[in-house]
Write a sequence for this structure.
């Protein structure tokens, strides 16, 4: 540990989320004395930019964490399952962006605007939620505080970047092929994404929902500490490069007016409210930013005490990298990280 800051590792440093993690650490001036970019052997010899200089990517192995204070993981569940406990045993805090630990009762699942108190649970591993779950609960928490959530139905419109660089590359290549009258190929997605939509994200489960939909349903309950909350999700991949959108229908225990909801959202951390219905946010509005945009807020006339609204966020930033760095900031503020 350095007396001038913290030794911070990024596992998956050459990926799309790893790149954003570096950017967010720099932008938010997190006290990094030394950055340790880690990746697989395929990335050996590569460099990444850090504070205007090239930083050599190191190959991830069991000895990577002995001098590291905190590691931000974004390299997939199997890597996290193997190396996060190794890092924790070395005294290194882990903020993991995979789904490997999210639903374990002993592991905090944290969105700083919603449940920062979850970090009081002693654990060297902290789980970063699913990207769509993050923007959903940031929008729901202020409304829940006013009227009490009763039921949530969410339909997502998730960009290709949710599948990483391979997803964005495949959307680009498919678009080029179609515009040049060539037959497009699909490897990352189950169907052609260019100029179409795919109502499947991750693998199907026995109940007909996908794993992504399960993540949203189960993670929402854990983060909001509402274990019996009825939640239903439909997750759809759309031909957008960056930024996730969703339509949320929420029923409440108590009456809540549009004005009450707007006032709560305007005062909520991390939220930008678009009051004018015609000023609705789109994915481009959220790109490169950390706020969750909310618009098209209206009363649902088909159910009592129900609202419907539109939510947009940058899935690589607030949906992944920024949330992870915010968790690191909370750990630092609570005295868990010295330097």
């Amino acid at each position: 540990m350095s007396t001038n800051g913290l030794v911070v590792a990024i596992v998956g440093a050459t990926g799309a989320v790893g790149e954003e993690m570096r950017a967010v650490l720099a932008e938010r001036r997190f006290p990094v004395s030394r950055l340790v970019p880690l990746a697989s052997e395929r990335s050996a010899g590569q460099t990444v930019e850090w504070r205007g200089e090239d930083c050599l990517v190191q190959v991830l192995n069991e000895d990577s964490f002995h001098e590291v204070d905190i590691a931000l993981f974004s390299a997939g569940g199997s890597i996290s399952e193997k190396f996060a406990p190794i890092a924790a045993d070395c005294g290194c805090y882990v903020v993991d962006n995979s789904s490997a630990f999210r639903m374990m009762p002993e592991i905090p699942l944290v969105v700083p605007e919603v449940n920062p108190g979850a970090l009081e649970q002693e654990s060297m591993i902290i789980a970063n939620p699913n990207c769509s779950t993050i923007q959903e609960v940031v929008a729901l928490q202020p409304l829940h505080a006013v009227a009490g959530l009763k039921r949530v139905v969410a339909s997502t419109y998730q960009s290709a970047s949710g599948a990483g660089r391979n997803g964005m590359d495949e959307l680009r290549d498919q678009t080029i092929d179609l515009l040049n009258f060539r037959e497009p190929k699909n490897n990352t997605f189950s169907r052609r994404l260019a100029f179409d939509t795919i109502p499947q994200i991750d693998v199907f489960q026995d109940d007909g929902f996908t794993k992504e939909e399960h993540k949203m349903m189960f993670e929402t309950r854990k983060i909001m500490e509402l274990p019996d909350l009825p939640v239903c999700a439909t997750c759809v991949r759309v031909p957008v490069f960056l930024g996730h959108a969703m339509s949320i229908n929420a029923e409440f225990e108590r009456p809540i007016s549009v004005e009450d909801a707007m006032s709560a959202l305007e005062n909520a951390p991390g939220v930008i409210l678009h009051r004018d219905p015609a000023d609705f946010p789109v994915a481009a509005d959220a790109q490169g930013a950390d706020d969750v945009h909310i618009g098209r807020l209206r009363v649902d006339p088909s159910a009592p005490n129900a609202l419907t609204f539109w939510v947009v966020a940058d899935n690589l930033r607030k949906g992944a990298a920024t949330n992870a760095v915010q968790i690191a900031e909370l750990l630092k503020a609570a005295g868990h990280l010295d330097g």
About this structure: Residues 131-147 form the longest helix (17 residues). The chain has eight helices and 14 strands. Residues 146 and 164 are 37 Å apart (CA to CA). The chain has a mean pLDDT of 96.
